[in-house]
Amino acid sequence: NLSLATITAPIGGVVSNLEAKANNPASAFKSFCTIIGNRTMQVSFQLLESEMTHLSPGQQVAVQPFALSGRSFTGTVTAVNPTIDASGMVKVTATLPNDAGVLMDGMNAKIVVKKSLPDCLVIPKTAVIYRQNRKVVFVHQNGKAIWTYVETGLENTTSVTITSGLEARQEVIVSNNADLAHESPVTVGREQ
Fold first, then answer.
1. CATH of the domain at 173
2. Does residue 63 fall inside a structural domain?
3. Three-class SS string for the chain?
4. pTM of full prediction above 0.85
């Protein structure tokens, strides 16, 4: 008797992928539905093997879902897979609370790994150009662009660390520097 049937889930969550329809026969091999426990969400992402040493369980990441423009959620790295895949990538898993219930299973997001680098000189990536197959930064000095060879370290999409060649407080030219020559006269406009 169908009216006496009760289906109870062993966990709480949100019903997803409801496959069953009223009065359809049940099948032992077919999923009835999926239940998503959405209080805590997991995000999986990949990073280059060269960046693996900069990430460890317990470290925080910022999760920025594309569907929730301008919103950022803090997650904690729970696992870094010790296996590197064929394309040189490492799988990382982080968890984050979803108390407001706005995060949904399957969302795409930008993941920002925050790393503190004490005593490092960091400049915009746009300041670094290549000359004679070496990295060069133009330093503004006495109204001229001075060609300075540099060595770089860690970088992200917008910034790079300088390991040698520059000192703190030197002014670097970050735009319109591709066609500069050593000791070219320049007028610098400062960003506010």
1. 2.40.420.20
2. yes
3. CHHHCCCCCCCCCEEECCCCCCCCCCCCCCCCCEEECCCEEEEEEEEEHHHHHHCCCCCEEEEEECCCCCCCEEEEEEEEEEEECCCCEEEEEEEEECCCCCCCCCCCEEEEECCCCCCCEEEEHHHEEEECCEEEEEEEECCEEEEEECEEEEECCCEEEEEECCCCCCEECCCCCCCCCCCEECCCCCCC
4. no
